[in-house]
Inverse folding.
Protein backbone atom coordinates (compact mmCIF):
# COMPACT_ATOMS: atom_id res chain seq x y z
CA UNK A 1 0.00 0.00 0.00
CA UNK A 2 1.32 3.42 -0.93
CA UNK A 3 2.01 5.73 1.99
CA UNK A 4 2.24 9.52 2.03
CA UNK A 5 5.47 11.11 3.25
CA UNK A 6 4.85 13.35 6.28
CA UNK A 7 6.94 16.02 4.57
CA UNK A 8 4.36 16.32 1.81
CA UNK A 9 1.72 17.36 4.36
CA UNK A 10 3.95 20.03 5.91
CA UNK A 11 2.45 23.50 5.55
CA UNK A 12 4.28 25.75 3.08
CA UNK A 13 5.59 29.21 4.01
CA UNK A 14 5.72 32.27 1.77
CA UNK A 15 9.48 31.66 1.50
CA UNK A 16 8.85 28.10 0.22
CA UNK A 17 6.43 29.40 -2.40
CA UNK A 18 9.07 31.92 -3.44
CA UNK A 19 11.67 29.12 -3.74
CA UNK A 20 9.39 27.21 -6.11
CA UNK A 21 8.84 30.33 -8.20
CA UNK A 22 12.64 30.63 -8.47
CA UNK A 23 12.81 27.04 -9.77
CA UNK A 24 10.05 27.79 -12.26
CA UNK A 25 11.80 30.98 -13.42
CA UNK A 26 15.01 28.99 -13.97
CA UNK A 27 13.11 26.30 -15.87
CA UNK A 28 11.57 28.94 -18.14
CA UNK A 29 14.98 30.54 -18.74
CA UNK A 30 16.66 27.26 -19.79
CA UNK A 31 13.79 26.01 -21.95
CA UNK A 32 12.25 23.36 -19.72
CA UNK A 33 8.93 25.22 -19.57
CA UNK A 34 6.99 27.27 -22.06
CA UNK A 35 5.70 30.70 -21.03
CA UNK A 36 2.18 29.26 -20.73
CA UNK A 37 3.33 26.40 -18.52
CA UNK A 38 5.42 28.80 -16.42
CA UNK A 39 2.48 31.15 -15.90
CA UNK A 40 0.11 28.37 -14.86
CA UNK A 41 2.60 26.77 -12.47
CA UNK A 42 3.56 30.12 -10.93
CA UNK A 43 -0.08 30.95 -10.28
CA UNK A 44 -0.60 27.54 -8.67
CA UNK A 45 2.56 27.96 -6.55
CA UNK A 46 1.27 31.23 -5.11
CA UNK A 47 -1.82 29.37 -3.81
CA UNK A 48 -0.05 26.18 -2.64
CA UNK A 49 -0.75 25.11 0.94
CA UNK A 50 1.63 22.17 1.48
CA UNK A 51 5.04 20.89 0.38
CA UNK A 52 3.21 18.20 -1.56
CA UNK A 53 1.37 20.86 -3.58
CA UNK A 54 4.69 22.58 -4.35
CA UNK A 55 6.53 19.34 -5.11
CA UNK A 56 4.11 18.46 -7.90
CA UNK A 57 5.01 21.71 -9.67
CA UNK A 58 8.76 20.94 -9.87
CA UNK A 59 8.91 17.14 -9.74
CA UNK A 60 9.63 16.84 -13.49
CA UNK A 61 12.23 19.62 -13.60
CA UNK A 62 16.02 19.60 -13.46
CA UNK A 63 17.10 21.76 -10.53
CA UNK A 64 20.00 24.25 -10.90
CA UNK A 65 22.83 23.80 -8.41
CA UNK A 66 22.27 27.26 -7.00
CA UNK A 67 18.75 26.33 -5.89
CA UNK A 68 19.44 22.79 -4.73
CA UNK A 69 19.71 23.73 -1.06
CA UNK A 70 16.24 25.29 -0.77
CA UNK A 71 13.83 23.50 1.59
CA UNK A 72 11.48 22.62 -1.26
CA UNK A 73 14.28 21.08 -3.34
CA UNK A 74 15.86 19.05 -0.57
CA UNK A 75 13.05 18.51 1.92
CA UNK A 76 10.86 15.95 0.17
CA UNK A 77 11.96 12.30 -0.18
CA UNK A 78 11.81 10.96 -3.73
CA UNK A 79 13.93 9.19 -6.32
CA UNK A 80 17.59 10.31 -6.41
CA UNK A 81 18.20 13.27 -8.71
CA UNK A 82 21.41 14.77 -9.88
CA UNK A 83 20.94 17.97 -7.85
CA UNK A 84 21.31 15.95 -4.66
CA UNK A 85 25.03 15.62 -5.37
CA UNK A 86 26.02 19.23 -4.51
CA UNK A 87 23.75 19.10 -1.46
CA UNK A 88 25.55 15.95 -0.32
CA UNK A 89 28.87 17.67 -0.87
CA UNK A 90 27.77 20.53 1.40
CA UNK A 91 26.70 18.07 4.12
CA UNK A 92 29.98 16.15 3.80
CA UNK A 93 31.98 19.37 4.07
CA UNK A 94 30.08 20.21 7.24
CA UNK A 95 30.88 16.82 8.75
CA UNK A 96 34.56 17.15 7.89
CA UNK A 97 34.63 20.57 9.51
CA UNK A 98 33.01 19.20 12.64
CA UNK A 99 35.53 16.34 12.76
CA UNK A 100 38.32 18.87 12.61
CA UNK A 101 37.00 20.55 15.73
CA UNK A 102 35.10 23.39 14.05
CA UNK A 103 32.13 23.09 16.37
CA UNK A 104 32.25 26.71 17.52
CA UNK A 105 31.39 29.63 15.32
CA UNK A 106 30.69 28.88 11.68
CA UNK A 107 29.97 31.10 8.72
CA UNK A 108 26.83 30.35 6.71
CA UNK A 109 26.67 32.11 3.38
CA UNK A 110 23.18 33.32 2.52
CA UNK A 111 21.91 32.25 -0.91
CA UNK A 112 21.96 35.01 -3.53
CA UNK A 113 18.80 37.06 -3.86
CA UNK A 114 16.58 36.42 -6.87
CA UNK A 115 15.99 39.33 -9.24
CA UNK A 116 13.63 41.35 -7.05
CA UNK A 117 11.66 42.71 -10.02
CA UNK A 118 10.45 39.20 -10.95
CA UNK A 119 7.40 37.54 -9.47
CA UNK A 120 9.63 35.23 -7.46
CA UNK A 121 11.83 38.10 -6.30
CA UNK A 122 8.79 40.16 -5.25
CA UNK A 123 7.48 37.17 -3.26
CA UNK A 124 10.90 36.71 -1.65
CA UNK A 125 11.02 40.37 -0.60
CA UNK A 126 7.44 40.25 0.71
CA UNK A 127 8.14 37.17 2.87
CA UNK A 128 11.21 38.83 4.42
CA UNK A 129 9.41 42.16 4.90
CA UNK A 130 6.48 40.59 6.73
CA UNK A 131 8.82 38.50 8.85
CA UNK A 132 10.86 41.58 9.79
CA UNK A 133 8.05 44.02 10.58
CA UNK A 134 5.02 41.84 11.30
CA UNK A 135 2.95 43.41 8.50
CA UNK A 136 3.36 44.36 4.86
CA UNK A 137 2.35 48.03 5.13
CA UNK A 138 4.48 50.55 3.22
CA UNK A 139 4.24 54.14 1.99
CA UNK A 140 6.34 53.47 -1.11
CA UNK A 141 8.32 50.53 -2.49
CA UNK A 142 10.89 50.48 -5.28
CA UNK A 143 12.27 47.16 -6.50
CA UNK A 144 15.52 46.95 -8.46
CA UNK A 145 17.02 43.65 -9.66
CA UNK A 146 19.57 43.56 -6.81
CA UNK A 147 17.98 45.58 -4.00
CA UNK A 148 14.82 47.34 -2.81
CA UNK A 149 14.02 50.68 -1.18
CA UNK A 150 11.10 51.07 1.21
CA UNK A 151 9.49 54.06 2.89
CA UNK A 152 7.22 53.23 5.81
CA UNK A 153 5.56 54.82 8.82
CA UNK A 154 8.11 54.78 11.65
CA UNK A 155 5.40 54.71 14.32
CA UNK A 156 6.54 58.12 15.53
CA UNK A 157 4.31 61.14 14.75
CA UNK A 158 5.30 62.75 11.47
CA UNK A 159 8.28 60.42 10.97
CA UNK A 160 9.05 57.94 8.20
CA UNK A 161 11.64 55.16 8.04
CA UNK A 162 13.68 54.84 4.84
CA UNK A 163 14.99 51.32 4.37
CA UNK A 164 17.27 49.49 1.97
CA UNK A 165 16.88 45.75 1.46
CA UNK A 166 19.68 43.48 0.22
CA UNK A 167 18.65 40.35 2.06
CA UNK A 168 18.53 42.35 5.30
CA UNK A 169 16.83 45.64 6.10
CA UNK A 170 18.99 48.65 6.94
CA UNK A 171 17.81 52.14 7.84
CA UNK A 172 19.25 55.12 6.03
CA UNK A 173 20.04 57.40 8.94
CA UNK A 174 17.42 58.86 11.26
CA UNK A 175 13.69 58.73 10.51
CA UNK A 176 12.76 61.35 7.93
CA UNK A 177 9.72 63.60 7.73
CA UNK A 178 6.43 61.89 6.78
CA UNK A 179 4.25 64.41 4.93
CA UNK A 180 0.75 64.96 6.33
CA UNK A 181 -1.85 62.84 4.57
CA UNK A 182 0.62 60.13 3.54
CA UNK A 183 -1.20 56.82 3.23
CA UNK A 184 0.17 53.31 3.58
CA UNK A 185 -0.82 50.37 1.40
CA UNK A 186 -0.59 46.64 2.00
CA UNK A 187 2.10 45.12 -0.22
CA UNK A 188 0.54 41.69 0.43
CA UNK A 189 -2.47 42.80 -1.66
CA UNK A 190 -0.39 42.55 -4.85
CA UNK A 191 -1.61 39.65 -7.01
CA UNK A 192 1.85 38.18 -7.56
CA UNK A 193 0.73 35.62 -10.14
CA UNK A 194 -0.74 38.33 -12.41
CA UNK A 195 2.17 40.64 -11.67
CA UNK A 196 4.66 37.92 -12.72
CA UNK A 197 2.92 37.43 -16.07
CA UNK A 198 2.69 41.15 -16.82
CA UNK A 199 6.26 41.78 -15.71
CA UNK A 200 7.64 38.98 -17.93
CA UNK A 201 5.86 40.43 -20.96
CA UNK A 202 6.63 44.08 -20.16
CA UNK A 203 9.33 44.52 -22.88
CA UNK A 204 6.83 43.44 -25.55
CA UNK A 205 3.99 45.46 -24.05
CA UNK A 206 6.08 48.64 -23.93
CA UNK A 207 7.64 47.97 -27.37
CA UNK A 208 11.19 48.00 -26.07
CA UNK A 209 13.08 45.43 -28.19
CA UNK A 210 15.65 43.47 -26.21
CA UNK A 211 14.50 45.29 -23.10
CA UNK A 212 14.51 44.34 -19.46
CA UNK A 213 12.76 45.63 -16.35
CA UNK A 214 15.03 48.22 -14.73
CA UNK A 215 12.86 48.87 -11.68
CA UNK A 216 9.33 48.66 -10.28
CA UNK A 217 7.65 51.44 -8.28
CA UNK A 218 4.67 50.77 -6.00
CA UNK A 219 2.90 53.79 -4.47
CA UNK A 220 -0.22 55.91 -4.43
CA UNK A 221 -0.28 58.21 -7.47
CA UNK A 222 0.97 61.75 -6.78
CA UNK A 223 -1.72 64.32 -6.07
CA UNK A 224 -3.25 62.89 -2.92
CA UNK A 225 -6.75 62.13 -4.29
CA UNK A 226 -8.69 60.39 -1.51
CA UNK A 227 -10.25 57.85 -3.89
CA UNK A 228 -6.94 56.97 -5.59
CA UNK A 229 -5.70 53.39 -5.44
CA UNK A 230 -2.03 52.39 -5.17
CA UNK A 231 -0.37 51.62 -8.51
CA UNK A 232 2.51 49.50 -9.74
CA UNK A 233 4.69 51.08 -12.44
CA UNK A 234 6.95 48.66 -14.32
CA UNK A 235 9.82 50.42 -16.11
CA UNK A 236 11.62 48.86 -19.08
CA UNK A 237 14.76 49.89 -20.93
CA UNK A 238 17.31 48.44 -23.38
CA UNK A 239 20.90 49.03 -24.45
CA UNK A 240 19.77 51.43 -27.19
CA UNK A 241 18.43 53.70 -24.41
CA UNK A 242 14.83 53.12 -25.44
CA UNK A 243 12.42 53.01 -22.53
CA UNK A 244 8.78 52.65 -21.66
CA UNK A 245 6.59 51.67 -18.75
CA UNK A 246 3.20 50.32 -17.84
CA UNK A 247 0.95 50.92 -14.86
CA UNK A 248 -1.22 48.29 -13.21
CA UNK A 249 -3.30 48.04 -10.06
CA UNK A 250 -2.30 45.79 -7.18
CA UNK A 251 -4.91 43.36 -8.48
CA UNK A 252 -3.03 43.11 -11.78
CA UNK A 253 -5.60 45.13 -13.72
CA UNK A 254 -3.83 47.23 -16.41
CA UNK A 255 -4.20 51.00 -16.10
CA UNK A 256 -2.06 52.44 -18.91
CA UNK A 257 0.87 51.66 -21.19
CA UNK A 258 3.51 54.21 -22.14
CA UNK A 259 5.45 52.57 -24.99
CA UNK A 260 8.86 53.56 -26.22
CA UNK A 261 8.91 56.24 -28.91
CA UNK A 262 8.86 54.69 -32.37
Amino acid sequence: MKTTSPAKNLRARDADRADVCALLDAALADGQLTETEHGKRTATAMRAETFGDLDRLVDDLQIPDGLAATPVARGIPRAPRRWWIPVGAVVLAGLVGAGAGLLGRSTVLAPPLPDLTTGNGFAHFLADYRAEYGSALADELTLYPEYALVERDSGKPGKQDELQYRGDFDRWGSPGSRPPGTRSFDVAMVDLAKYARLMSGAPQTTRVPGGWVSHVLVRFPPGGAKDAEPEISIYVKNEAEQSGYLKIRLSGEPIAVYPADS
